[in-house]
């Protein structure tokens, strides 16, 4: 069955795909993970992953989606058959569905925090607040599972509502207003951080001075008796974050690619999206770290970082009530446009293959994801010390609660693995003529050859190398 929908223009695809890419990953995750991994060197590795792995995989996804003209599961099936291969390749679509469920389940909980902050901001809770006070507001929220459930339910409801209607009209309208506004607000915040925090350069140094010691030897401090052990976990996190932030590795961009007009050039479109996405992440870092240093906060304080630092800044600035409320509203919108792309692939598949109505499919899947989200909610309070995989013994999984596990397994394992198989399929399984057709036809130009080289060799070897090192099978250095 063919997917009828199509973006009304190339620009709409760029906005929708950027809407998918730009989200909590850029504004919430990037700063705190960069903070946990020591800053500059992590940022450099992250950007290297975006350009050498992220862009080629995103191009492959768009190409496969547009050629398949259906949801990822069916598109992979169609293209595997076209290439005379076993339909097992649609497993890429299936693993994407599972990854999408897991990601959206915790994503919605965090988006719920942003929702909860809107009334807090509006009512002036943060006006003139101390850093301790801001920390306390955050801790009080996350300690209360019922509050978190309320906001998580609202966010899932909002997401289901839009997907149930069909995204094209509503989505196009929403993203064309929200994305530019979000961008300007972020720039304004960075300017505020630059002129008023007095610590702007400290933030710049933290983000751009490359201290590889901090990346490869986390927590290393021989003077205090902490031994220095080399670890590739930081590099794996950078790669995982690149996948997460670009929305690649699970079929979300593949799905949006299915709605892409045949005439749109894939390379320049993808580069635009990737640059916009990286820019927002860097801007978020530049807005946040000066405030972190100005208030003596810890850059490695984890998921609460943005929810504690920004309110302090808003609390001190003129017009902070309005500005702060606006910021969290836009953060919710950024998360919302990302959530669409997490739910859409499975809903489109149910509509195509099971003839379900869009609304039934959206409500059904949304309900299951909502249920799964409860595990993440409890990870911030009642079950924060419950480590479901502790029985595996001494490894990275053993000390993680449900939220940490969902986050780690999707970003650092499922998305890179999905991306690896997408790369292999596009680079080695699809026929030359099929690839060329999608990339603008014969004669193949320089961008095609650059892409083919990256997706054939650089992407697969890069992913494997980081994987193998991180699990400690190969030890370099
Ligand atoms: N990229 C989004 C963010 O940065 C999250 C997201 C949306 C996503 N769709 C995805 C992540 C698909 C992985 C896969 O917040």
From TrEMBL:
Q: Spell out the InterPro entries in the cross-references.
A: Na/ntran_symport, SNS_sf, YocR/YhdH-like
Q: Which GO terms describe its molecular function?
A: symporter activity
The membrane topology of this protein is: Multi-pass membrane protein
Q: Does the keyword Transmembrane helix apply?
A: yes
Transmembrane portions of the chain:
12-34, 40-60, 92-118, 146-167, 174-195, 235-259, 271-293, 321-349, 361-380, 413-430, 451-474
Q: Name one GO cellular component term.
A: membrane
Tell me the keywords, alphabetical order: Membrane, Symport, Transmembrane, Transmembrane helix, Transport
Tell me the PROSITE patterns matching this sequence.
NA_NEUROTRAN_SYMP_1, NA_NEUROTRAN_SYMP_3
Localization, UniProt: Membrane
Q: Which SUPFAM superfamilies match?
A: SNF-like (SSF161070)
Q: What is the protein's major site of localization?
A: membrane
Q: Family, per the entry?
A: Belongs to the sodium:neurotransmitter symporter (SNF) (TC 2.A.22) family.
Its recorded name reads: Transporter
């Amino acid at each position: 069955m063919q997917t009828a929908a199509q973006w009304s223009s190339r620009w709409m695809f760029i906005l929708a795909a950027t809407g998918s890419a730009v989200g909590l990953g850029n504004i919430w995750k990037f700063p705190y993970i960069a903070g946990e991994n020591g800053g500059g060197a992590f940022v450099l590795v992250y950007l290297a992953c975006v350009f050498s792995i992220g862009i080629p995989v995103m191009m492959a996804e768009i190409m496969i989606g547009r050629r398949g003209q259906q949801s990822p599961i069916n598109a992979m099936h169609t293209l595997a058959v076209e290439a005379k291969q076993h339909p097992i390749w649609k497993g890429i679509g299936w693993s994407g569905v599972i990854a999408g469920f897991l990601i959206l389940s915790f994503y919605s909980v965090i988006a719920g925090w942003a929702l909860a902050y809107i009334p807090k901001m509006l009512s002036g809770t943060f006006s003139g607040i101390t850093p301790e006070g801001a920390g306390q507001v955050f801790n009080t929220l996350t300690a209360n599972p019922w509050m978190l459930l309320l906001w998580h339910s609202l966010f899932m409801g909002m997401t289901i509502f839009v997907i149930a209607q069909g995204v094209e009209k509503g989505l196009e309208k929403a993203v064309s207003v929200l994305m530019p506004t979000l961008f300007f607000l972020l720039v304004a915040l960075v300017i505020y951080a630059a002129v008023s925090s007095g610590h702007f350069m400290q933030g710049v140094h933290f983000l751009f001075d490359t201290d590889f010691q901090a990346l490869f030897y986390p927590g290393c401090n021989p003077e205090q008796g902490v031994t220095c052990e080399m670890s590739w976990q930081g590099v794996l996190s950078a790669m995982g974050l690149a996948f997460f932030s670009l929305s690649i590795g699970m079929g979300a961009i593949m799905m949006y690619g299915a709605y892409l007009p045949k005439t749109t050039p894939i390379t320049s479109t993808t580069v635009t999206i990737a640059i916009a996405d990286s820019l927002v992440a860097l801007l978020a870092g530049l807005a946040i770290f000066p405030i972190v240093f100005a208030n003596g906060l810890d850059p490695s304080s984890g998921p609460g970082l943005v929810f504690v630092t920004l309110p302090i800044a808003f609390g001190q600035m003129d017009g902070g009530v309005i500005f702060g409320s606006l910021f969290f509203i836009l953060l919710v919108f950024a998360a919302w446009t990302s959530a669409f792309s997490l739910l859409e692939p499975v809903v489109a598949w149910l509509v195509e293959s099971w003839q379900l109505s869009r609304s039934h499919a959206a409500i059904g899947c949304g309900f299951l994801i909502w249920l799964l989200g409860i595990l993440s909610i409890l990870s911030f309070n009642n079950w924060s010390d419950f480590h479901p995989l502790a029985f595996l013994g001494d490894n990275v999984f053993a000390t993680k609660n449900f939220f940490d596990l969902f986050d780690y397994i999707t970003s650092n394992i499922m998305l890179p693995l999905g991306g690896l198989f997408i790369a292999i399929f596009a680079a080695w399984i699809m026929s030359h003529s099929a690839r060329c057709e999608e990339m603008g036809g014969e004669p193949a130009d320089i961008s095609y050859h650059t892409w083919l080289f990256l997706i054939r060799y650089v992407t697969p070897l890069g992913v494997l190398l980081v994987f193998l090192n991180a699990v400690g099978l190969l030890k370099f250095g």
